[in-house]
């Protein structure tokens, strides 16, 4: 018996590709209050790009700005192979009213289906396939196989320490084993081995054959085959004699698998990797040490923290150790779990910051991790029905707040991590303390600080007027070899570090400015051309302002040009950049969506926000939008722009997506602020 789910659209030779079919259907869409953007080019890489393209298309075609729209971007486009075959789900993003978009997209083109993930998700478009009575696809149906593997590969639950999967049916397991019975094709085998080993179901024979092919094909580069993440756990589980040799060759990437199979041998390997500062190895080392040698998690963490300090492991290793410690205590069976899922984790972090059993480096890591969480713990404690537990939680917060300033003095964020994490905490640096200034200067003087760290620290010092010749001199030996490399800053609040350094050199009248400007003037490398004019902010002149303005009104792609011109003009005129920006409202040649983000971005000229779009997840953008909306020195039109941005911000629409996380009180205050201004329009 075959259950017909839809059409099997595997394409015989000569038929149109998936891409051409989908494009043909896409061209039929659109209508009243709904529009679709043309298929993407590489210039539309993210959702922000999609919304910017929509604003530009609406302006060009005279479409009402409140029209709902759908699009896909270049990252989504990776769902298509070069042949045009759909090799994965195509995510369709949107803006405006969800119901209007859902109605406009409909069920999808013939042979395909659309899945609606609701008002907070993207739509998914995929091919329709057929399955048998057991829900299994024909092995030759590539789309059906892909969809089946995606289904059995979806976890039932995730925690910090484990991921659980639903059990396979006997038919599903047999189908997967059958795919591994043929001669080993490593590229294909990884797809079938992974769901089996997620259920600890790879057989010794399958594991041995995969190991042999893996070691032969990837000799000297075992980590290059992604299937090792299934085979190594199977080797360890089956106590295969080659498991430790393979693990040693894989290195610290294998830490998670070794931690899940603690033994004296795994402990030895994990320790060696952890002392190099590898974050995953530090966490794995703690788990193995805790399981084998020290059942008390706090004593285990204290021992490892002291050893990391003794061996001068990187500071970030203490953060990894703290994460492992928090996982251990919040997974304990006697932890009280109120409605607030994150309360045990947050409270544990606050407690560890003042736990005298822990060495200071680990308490400092806890104090940093607890920043912005004290009020959340207070709120959660207020919901506890156990009065004693609530009082203890509040006392822990008080102890933390008493010790916090001492623990955090002279510290700062991890400059090597995900740059979005640095953007999330940018609002903390709106005003710099003396210890902040010293920390930023020390990082710039440290030769080990990378390009991202230099960009972040130098931008903060320069914008606040704290950058000096000492920072310039510290970076001069590095600018030609390191700072002339491409570094994308489109989605950050800071500029390319060489832009900022060139501005500083010009402001100081330093001889190095001439050499830097000469480098910027050269035609290559090509990556620098879109941001070259941003260096005009240093030592501003009327000539620089005119050159920038000429580019802006030419319609060229804005990567900070209007922001630079507004700040430059404000310096020349001795006025607040907000007043410069508001004069440009309705100015011919100025794109409104660019001006709107600039108007809000310059609300505090001591810390302008360089992100190329208004970030609806950001504390910084929320506060600036409020300030613009409430600034009585500004015109009604300018204040309306601030109100619009505030209404679109996630602080009230999707507060759980704002980072760092908001308290309920902050969300209520934001709602009250908006409600108090509900009737405000540009005419007010």
Overall description:
The protein is built from 32 helices and nine strands. The chain has 684 residues and is mainly alpha-helical. A five-stranded mixed beta sheet has the order 2-3-4-6-5, sandwiched between helices. It has a two-stranded antiparallel ribbon with strand order 1-7. Strand 5 and strand 6 form a beta hairpin. The relative contact order is 0.04.
How large is the share of residues in beta strands? Answer: under 5%
Number of helices: 32
What kind of sheet is the major sheet? 5 strands, mixed
The structure class reads mainly alpha
Q: How many strands in all?
A: 9
Mean pLDDT: 93
Basic shape: globular
How much is the radius of gyration in Å? 28 Å
The level of helicity is 40-55%
Distance between the termini: 69 Å
Low-confidence stretches are 1-14, 333-339
Give the strand order of the largest sheet, numbering strands 1, 2, ... along the chain: 2-3-4-6-5
